[in-house]
Amino acid sequence: MAVEVMTVEVAEATASGFAAIGAGLAVGLTGMGTGLAQFSIGGAAVGATAENKDMFGLALLFTVIPETIVIFGLVVALLLLF
After folding, report:
1. pTM across the whole model
2. pLDDT tens column, 26-37
């Protein structure tokens, strides 16, 4: 039985690949989570705005808040890649 020894180049390439997969997962999963959150928040915001026009600013604020999660995911991805 021959035992293969992992060279430094192979180890660096593997680590770089896993970092790219992790960065993609960080952005992709946070994006899907934000989409699910905005799905329900957006519907409620439209309903509240239809009943009372003064609720538009608050409804817009509640709709924008989940988008910060994607920004955190992007920051994590950039930290993994650089």
Report:
1. 0.76
2. 999 999 999 999
